[in-house]
């Protein structure tokens, strides 16, 4: 006799974005990890916040500071609560929170889906609601939630979605009990396609491993984004990880990004509607890096209140379209914004290249029209484009352009077909076979 086993799969509704009143737009702020790892304290955090305010970055929108891993003692107290490390925070995290609030910034929490954080500090598995209460008492309402030391499958009897759902449910319960909710950011590293289910339980989700301050790491993340751009919209954002802008010779580890690479990095993260979290020691960063982080034109598009979707590729460039290549991501991108049609042209190659495209390769452009062009890096109007745009870009460089309709194209551009392959040959005589 054969024994038959049935597997019952739950019916999963169509993808939607969780809207619990927070996270409509990508978050902007600072995260301690890339700059300092575990080696930070209240004084270091205060110095970063004060510098952010002095540089105008808080005014530009960077108003959240994540205390990443290592802020607590490694053991909970007798009542099971996390305890802030008294050596790092001699006056308590509440006092630090009050100080950064005075400068227009709010502290944010880091937690973990398992028994311990990635650095071995208390994780939140089984204590989700208790830890939310602690973070709230410290003045926090944003949670970056990591994925280390997770319990075995036979303990949770859940896959990744179920394990991260535990904290989402706790956030909903906490909001119901206190009328205070948390912005929930998943750090699942793309292991089990959070791009599909992240919308249901959180406001952002990582699709890749940890970023590093090298061009190869940035290109690999942009390559993945070439295929995942469709998931970002209001209340749900692909998180491409913290920014490495500024970490040339500093950071953990020290980086080697060129000025052009930093510009490309920031442009892609901003226009793909990723959260933007500074990850460098702002007291040591160069003026060039600080200017990149403060690019108001790109931040304005990242924070567009009326258009939530990301830019998308219309041509790959080096490779045939839809080619997955960690070294050469898609190079030609466009999208709609409240301020015009935006284009990002990326030179993924190691040498200077001539780049060009036909305007109507982008879905967002109207055929037969000319467009005024604004450069989002020089912050200047740079002329009128008719049908084509060409440029020279340095190795790993970028161009970010905002186009607006400037009327019909000149009459001398009149033609019967937009592209040669759209014209048919009319046969007036067919010979018999």
From TrEMBL:
Taxonomy, superkingdom: Eukaryota
Signal peptide residues on this chain, from the entry's feature table: 1-17
Keyword Phosphoprotein: no
UniProt entry tagged with the keyword Magnesium: no
Occurrences of domain Alpha galactosidase C-terminal (ranges): 328-403
CDD domains membership: GH27
Pfam families membership: Melibiase_2, Melibiase_C
GO BP term, pick one: carbohydrate metabolic process
Alphabetical UniProt keywords: Disulfide bond, Glycosidase, Hydrolase, Signal
Gene Ontology molecular function, alphabetical: alpha-galactosidase activity
Reactions listed under catalytic activity: Hydrolysis of terminal, non-reducing alpha-D-galactose residues in alpha-D-galactosides, including galactose oligosaccharides, galactomannans and galactolipids
The enzyme's E.C. designation: 3.2.1.22
Membership in a protein family: Belongs to the glycosyl hydrolase 27 family.
UniProt protein name: Alpha-galactosidase
Organism in which the protein naturally occurs: Hortaea werneckii EXF-2000
